[in-house]
Amino acid sequence: MSKPTTLSQRLKDDNLMQYVEQIITNMRAAATIFPEPVPGLDVVEAALIDFRLSATEAAYRDARAIRIRKDKKKQLEYLLSELAKYVDTIANKDANVVLASGFSLPKEAQSYAGPVPKATHLRAEPQQVGSRRIKMKVDRWKGARMYQFQFRKKGETEWITQFSSKSTCVLEGLEMFQEYEFRATYVGISPEPNYSNLVASYVV
Fold first, then answer.
1. pLDDT tens, 96-140?
2. What beta strand segments (E) does the chain contain?
């Protein structure tokens, strides 16, 4: 999942202020990516200043000041959640765009935001004689959105691609008694493939 997260419910007041400042700074620096934030960054910054002042007043434990701080914090959190929706729309599931905004990703998404690992332990298993089918298997990876399998006749240069939502797939209609080469890659947040080692098998 590559949606921006507000973190507001888990952050102490000082950390929330720092987080909002980071987002404002990053989004202003990346104005070409985020040309018209909704709400505007000036509005968010004004709410941040109000919250910071109210937090200072509330430090003296005055009941009225504490109530005002809570109200200002709610307003800031609301603006932050609306800004997160805008960033999510612009990013269109691209984790790198989310990170460019200064927003954080959920922990799981952060783990899978980089390059995909090399696909491992690829197997090509011929099925029953005369079926002209090969069953492909590769180790699972939790960050995979899809699995991409490719095959070609040995000696040829063009790969044929087949996608699967699982770490296995069956290739059908292959030529009998021909040797084929196979490779696979995980499809994750990063669009760059990282192919497995080649394996080869005859079709029966």
1. 888 889 888 776 555 666 788 999 999 999 999 999 999 999 999
2. 123-126, 134-137, 146-153, 160-164, 168-171, 179-187, 199-202
